[in-house]
Amino acid sequence: QAAVASPWLGLLALGLDIPRLSLFPPSDNTGSSTYRPPPRTREVMINGQMVKLKYCFTCKMFRPPRTSHCSVCDNCVERFDHHCPWVGNCVGRRNYRFFYAFILSLSFLTAFIFACVVTHLTLRFHTYLVASNLTTNEDIKGSWSSKRGGEASVNPYSHKSIITNCCAVLCGPLPPSLIDRRGFVQSDTVLPSPIRSDEPACGAKPDAS
After folding, report:
1. Which residue of 74, 133, 160, 167 shows the fewest CB atoms closer than 10 Å?
2. What domain range is 165 assigned to?
């Protein structure tokens, strides 16, 4: 709708009751020079405020409030917002809501595609780690490969089978926790440091001799 709805008001809106005046003298043979062209601007009252209406020489009419002439479409557009090259149409009063729905849905689609790409890359990377029985740290450091220029070595933790590696990482038994959550923490006893014999005691004056 944003691309096919016609927002134009000028030459395509001949049925509207809009004053269409000519600023040029009529072509008669009387030779009269008393012709006065109509003013190029008009003023109308809108909500207690005067609004100036300009005359469009192309569409031959006074532009309604908030109307501008689009140089691309060569027509006056009511409540002209802008000419969008992506939809190939002017955005105005009759299609602004469809344009807003278009960019809103496009924003949601962009966020959805970005989330899918990030999820795909992350899931694919960690699926590779699980199938190889590697950790992210080992893969980045290249512990069992020649990524850092060293000699490639065999991963000693791999079971030589993708299924076995997946079962070992995802379905293997969990080791017991080494933290005793019900135990009591014993406070460390801080022993005072002994005073050296060659240092003066606190408050004692050093020997002047």
Report:
1. 160
2. 105-170
